[in-house]
Design brief:
The complex is a heterodimer. By secondary structure, chain A is mainly beta. Chain A has no helices and seven strands. Chain B is an alpha+beta fold. In chain B, strand 5 and strand 6 form a beta hairpin. Chain B is globular. The chains are: A mainly beta, B alpha+beta. At the A-B interface, strand 3, strand 4 and strand 5 of A face helix 3, strand 6 and strand 7 of B.
Chain lengths: 103, 152
Amino acid sequence: MGEATRIRATAKDGQTEVKMLMQHEMETGQRKDAAGNKIPAWIITDVKVLHEGRTVLEAQFGTAVSKNPYLVFRLMGGVKGEKISVLWTDNRDDKRMDETVID
Amino acid sequence: MERRKALKTGGGLGLLGVLAVLGLIPGLAWAGIGRAALEAGNLSDAFDALGVTIPENSELIRLTVPDVAENGAVVPVTVESSLAHIEQISILVDKNINVLAANFIIPKGVAGFITTRIKIGQTATVVALVKADGKFYRASKEVQVTQGGCSA
């Protein structure tokens, strides 16, 4: 299982800004190692963000998302103390779920 | 009958919901686009896979990318749109081997705003594709890459 996603959710002016930094290699599958062998692709393919159990963002990643994917988005409403959950799954079927509360 | 009611109204994420989000139920893929779109090798194939004909340019989409990226492996991208009823935002790079970098499903109650970081293999045009009210719109901007992004 990968390392924890760092998440910060801040409520301001009736919106909640959610910032997250996932820890993942995001290997494209297009690079070769020193011996000339292709390094296999290893990427997060799907991300889901929940606000108190309701889906507020779904993302599908291709190979061009940078290493340690960074995402920011904004949802309407959101109150201090409410839960934000970030789930991802990668092409090796590794999964991770991390949570924070709105600040 | 009480039990049935409880099942129907089971709070928040029921067991099924939890299993579904963890992807533990075979054959119940997460909603969204197919992987084919993410493997498309040019813009027109990606548009086809996304079900887009020719998206209109829209001034209501603001795409923020650097004019010049010294490091193509980490290029910040922000897409912001004031179009009504936004359902989906996609970020594409026309010269990348896989042109579709990422796709985002935007439900009701979520702003038309996404920031992320992508890899750009060589000087290319970044396209922000926004689906709003069932129609597709786009905005594009060229990014000059001085050092490639590990052939993204």
